[in-house]
Design brief:
Number of helices: 18
Number of strands: 12
Distance between the termini: 25 Å
Bound molecules: adenosine-5'-triphosphate
Shape: globular
Structural class: alpha+beta
Cofactor: Mg(2+)
GO molecular function: ATP binding; metal ion binding; protein serine/threonine kinase activity
Membrane topology: Single-pass membrane protein
Oligomer: single chain
Catalytic activity: L-threonyl-[protein] + ATP = O-phospho-L-threonyl-[protein] + ADP + H(+); L-seryl-[protein] + ATP = O-phospho-L-seryl-[protein] + ADP + H(+)
Radius of gyration: 28 Å
Main location: cytoplasm
């Protein structure tokens, strides 16, 4: 081997060691040099891309400082043995690492750029159409229309708020929910509810008693998506915690429902009550009923349909399907960041409307089963069978479905909702959810090889994301953030990605800056859709270099990911 050849091999080794995250084994290898022939070939080791990327700087620094120490102490000759060729290769290896120092600098710049981008987009809060209003805290403030939905815990009715009709001078009101016409477009199957722009959810109260405090205590999870003005501050219910236990609430997000008002009131006899839910009525309305006299009412925007209803009549196009999956991941990531797990994600609990270009916008709703405990975050102590693990048993992630209660047992929900999104993607792309009972796979026992393939028109990156989201082992499953980043990159960064697989982080920062500038200047997504614009804002306001790098790792090594990547 010529010196020139040895140098280039050493530098190449130094670089690839860095890029592949193999600094730790390389450091060990260097320590073993003496008397051994250096193999420049691929060391055989199984590495998960999500685990090797974040750790690399640590090993890199260890190796560099170890190398410097060896050189200074004169131990270099001892370390590499007498062969001049080995010394050259090893020195070149050091040069390769030195070049990486430069990359490390670039990294720091990229991290700084990311932080600036994040700060810029975090400042701009997602707006809720309802500004503070003094009315709407009583049932009498609303005109109630027909029933639009029913679940196991509540009936939902369309509603209008005559108090909120704007006078000449008043521009903002609940009515804006319907009059934002440039934001909403009608669909022939699901016309926009114009006469009744609101939806009132009447909870069925069978055990809580009729005091406001008891109702709030037992149904407090429903208030997680409530706006700060949803509850009357100085009235019977208060969000400041004086009345009962109040869970965390989530800041506004385009893919999470907003509850504009919440109040308790006597249960009224609404259309269809006697026929459809007589048992949960109070004896005042049905002598055989077991419901309490008062209950909780939640006021939201009235959406044209649920995701399930929409998918019943439409199969979204490839791009719309990807945007829909991405919105769910963004919504779930937002909840995770607030330490909230929804725990009942299913297509009935996702509402849908259309932006002006007809692109479906999804919002996650029904927080009745959520985990939003200030004390335990996303880790639920599972001491006994009486502890609720969440809603729909069919869509329980494996780590939740297989948990057995006992002292010290904790269920980690940090990736459970992301798993459910993976299963819902089948529905979005026109297939039945493989986990729906009674004949579906079971979360507790399925093998990943049993997962059906998605239809061939599903984008390859979406197929990869779904396969990863449905991994049994949550440690090998990407978080909602990483999965969302993968879809963002797939939708808008594929060209940039082609240059990123060499870990050129300065280019990554450039690309992010371009994205930010585009979103800031345009206020619309690449194809003019407000859904896309919101998604890009979500992406940029949550940007984190390590998460992004992990997403790139998954995409770049995606084809080899059936079990693990062998380097
Ligand atoms: N804001 C809304 N706009 C339009 N329809 C809605 C709205 N909220 C709920 N619905 C309809 O009402 C149905 C029941 O609502 P929801 O899921 O909140 O009730 P639930 O009793 O808590 O359900 P579950 O049985 O899942 O616990 C939904 O599936 C949907 O069809």
């Amino acid at each position: 081997m010529s010196v020139k050849h040895a140098v280039s091999r050493g530098m190449e080794l130094g670089r690839s060691v860095f890029q592949l995250g193999l600094l730790k084994p390389a450091a060990r290898l260097a320590a073993k040099f003496r008397g051994e022939r250096l193999r420049v070939g691929q060391p055989s080791r199984t590495v998960q891309p999500q685990t090797f990327l974040p750790a690399r700087y640590r090993y890199y620094r260890m190796s560099l400082s170890g190398l410097a120490a060896q050189l200074q102490s004169g131990g270099f000759r001892r370390l590499v043995g007498g062969s001049p060729r080995n010394r050259v290769v090893f020195l070149a290896f050091g040069v390769g690492l030195g070049l990486i120092e430069q990359q490390f600098e670039d990294d720091r710049k990229s991290v700084a750029a990311c932080q600036q981008i994040q700060a810029m987009f975090k400042k701009k809060k997602f707006e809720t159409p309802l500004k503070s209003f003094v009315s709407g805290y009583k049932l009498e403030d609303y005109v109630i229309g027909k029933q639009i939905g029913k679940g196991c815990n509540a009936a939902v009715y369309e509603a209008a708020a005559p108090f909120a009709v704007p006078r000449e001078s008043e521009k903002c009101s609940l009515v804006e929910l319907k009059s934002n016409s440039n934001e909403q477009s009608a669909s022939p199957q699901f016309p926009y509810p114009t006469i009744y722009p609101l939806a009132v959810k009447m909870m069925w109260n069978m055990g809580a008693g009729s005091s406001s405090e008891a109702i709030l205590n037992s149904m407090s999870q429903e208030l997680v998506p409530a706006t700060p003005h949803a509850l009357k501050q100085e009235g019977e219910l208060s969000l400041n915690g004086h009345f009962g236990w109040v869970p965390k609430t989530v800041p506004a997000h385009p893919n999470v429902i907003r509850v504009y008002r919440a109040f308790t009131a006597d249960v009224p006899l609404l259309p269809g009550a006697v026929e459809e839910y007589p048992d949960v009525l109070p004896t005042r309305l049905n002598p055989m009923g077991v419901g309490n006299n008062r209950t909780l009412f939640l006021v939201m925007k009235n959406y044209p349909c649920t995701l399930r209803q929409y998918l019943h009549v439409c199969t979204p196009a490839r791009k719309d399907g990807t945007l829909m999956a991405l919105q769910l991941l963004e919504g779930v990531d937002h909840l995770c960041r607030q330490g909230i797990a929804h725990r009942d994600l299913k297509s009935d609990n996702i509402l849908l409307e259309f932006d002006s270009g007809g692109c479906p916008r999804l919002v996650i709703t029904d927080f009745g089963c959520c985990l939003a405990d200030k004390s335990c975050g996303l880790e639920l102590p599972y001491n006994g069978r009486w502890v609720s693990r969440g809603g729909n048993a069919c869509l329980m992630a494996p780590e939740v479905a297989t948990a057995t209660p006992g002292p010290g047992v904790v269920i980690d929900y940090s990736k459970a909702d992301a798993w459910a999104v993976g299963s819902i993607c089948y529905e979005i792309f026109g297939e039945p959810n493989p986990f729906y009972c009674p004949h579906g796979l079971e979360g507790r026992s399925y093998q990943e090889t049993q997962l059906p393939t998605l239809p061939t028109n599903t984008p390859a990156d979406v197929q990869l994301v779904v396969r990863l989201l449905l991994r049994r082992n949550p440690k090998k499953r990407p978080s909602a953030r990483v999965a969302a980043n993968m879809l963002h990159l797939s939708l808008w960064g594929r060209r940039a990605l082609a240059t990123l697989d060499r870990a050129k982080l300065s280019e990554l920062a450039d690309w992010l800056l371009c994205q930010s500038a585009f979103v800031l200047l345009n206020g619309r997504g690449p194809s003019g859709s407000s859904v896309e614009a919101d998604l890009q804002r979500c992406f940029l306001s949550n940007i984190d270099l390590e998460d992004l790098r992990t997403a790139i790792g998954f995409l770049v090594y995606g084809q080899q990911l059936s079990s693990a990547v062998t380097l």
